[in-house]
């Protein structure tokens, strides 16, 4: 039997007092291990179904290998649910329950149909944007109590009539989790460290490209010209410029401010170190090749076996620096780093939150975290300013809102020295 931390024991006691719950804990904080302990103590000889993302099936199989000797445990991914909703189970465990936030999807409706005496949903962040994301998950736990989506949405969000005569959620109301007893939650403030925002003045040459893209919707390089078709594409091009102009034109002889800053930081950052990027890792690979550090990377082409091998090497501190894309570094990775660099500012709070927690665990709390932000010397907002505003508000900006903020002058030159993640959760 595994040993639990004090907070895990307290949560186990809460689970013992109820048959259905949504366990809301940060990533890497032992939700799966809580389920293992619960099975060993309360479900010996029972029929159990675990539903998890395809990438986590191997993890759950390894975790519950010993428990499978005494229990009939089936582990499936959401695409396989249609084969199991006619069976009855003593315990249903749903990992990454935010995947079922949409009340209208096929997999959410299939999950509702699975008969189970006890149901536990696990999630690090069950709300991706608005509080109504909780309704479908709570409806799975108690369909009678949470019968009306619109009643729930009216309580915890602001609604507005749309042009088609329906209603849209436009903002969150205050969410008091004490009003929702089905949710077991530990306040996250205690789990976060301050993140330092490194402010980097934009070079004049890149500033010219930046202004040209914003006003003329084109990019004029020395040997090529690229037109930008619309505001959505403009957002991407400006983010690529902030990363490095070489993403847009390889012949362009300017790496950018973030590259120079990273080259300097690599000399003093505690190792092992994680570096997260929003774009392909080609530019960052070039930086690492010039160092004497041992490094590796995980991108969308990294196969599962190699991904696991790299993770093990990093855990054993055989790798000094690991490069990752936000989109592939969100789930199923435990990477106990001593430092993290967010090279690009992500477009969503969820990406930043999940990336940060690849390293942050109950036994690895003291992490140096840095975010690189471009800054104009004049009073204009940069793309990074806009993305930071979006992160702080946890709202996805429309193209028109994005363009408005991009061109709006700052009323005050506020130099951000620290971004406290816990303030925005």
Structure description:
With 425 residues, this protein is α/β, with parallel strands linked by helices. Helices cover 32% and strands 20% of the residues. The protein has helices spanning 6-16, 31-42, 57-63, 106-112, 133-141, 149-156, 204-216, 231-243, 257-265, 282-289, 304-315, 349-356, 383-393, 399-407, and strands at 20-24, 47-51, 72-76, 89-95, 116-123, 157-161, 167-172, 183-185, 195-201, 218-220, 225-227, 273-277, 295-298, 321-325, 339-342, 368-375, 418-419. The longest helix has 13 residues, at 204-216. The two termini are 34 Å apart.
Lay out the secondary structure:
Layout: H1 6-16, E1 20-24, H2 31-42, E2 47-51, H3 57-63, E3 72-76, E4 89-95, H4 106-112, E5 116-123, H5 133-141, H6 149-156, E6 157-161, E7 167-172, E8 183-185, E9 195-201, H7 204-216, E10 218-220, E11 225-227, H8 231-243, H9 257-265, E12 273-277, H10 282-289, E13 295-298, H11 304-315, E14 321-325, E15 339-342, H12 349-356, E16 368-375, H13 383-393, H14 399-407, E17 418-419
Parallel strand pairs: 1-5, 1-8, 2-3, 2-4, 4-5, 9-16, 12-14, 12-15, 13-14, 15-16
Antiparallel strand pairs: 6-7, 9-17, 10-11
Helix pairs in contact: 1-2, 7-8
Instruction: Name the shape in a single word.
Output: globular
Global structural class: alpha/beta
- Kindly, what is the distance between the CA atoms of the first and last residues, rounded to a whole number of angstroms? 34 Å
The helicity comes to 25-40%
User: How many strands?
Assistant: 17
Uncertain parts: 401-406, 408-425
Q: Calculate Rg over CA atoms.
A: 23 Å
Percent of sequence in beta strands = 15-25%
- Widest sheet: strand ordering: 13-14-12-15-16-9-17
The biggest beta sheet is recorded as: 7 strands, mixed
Number of helices: 14
How confident is the prediction overall: mean pLDDT? 81
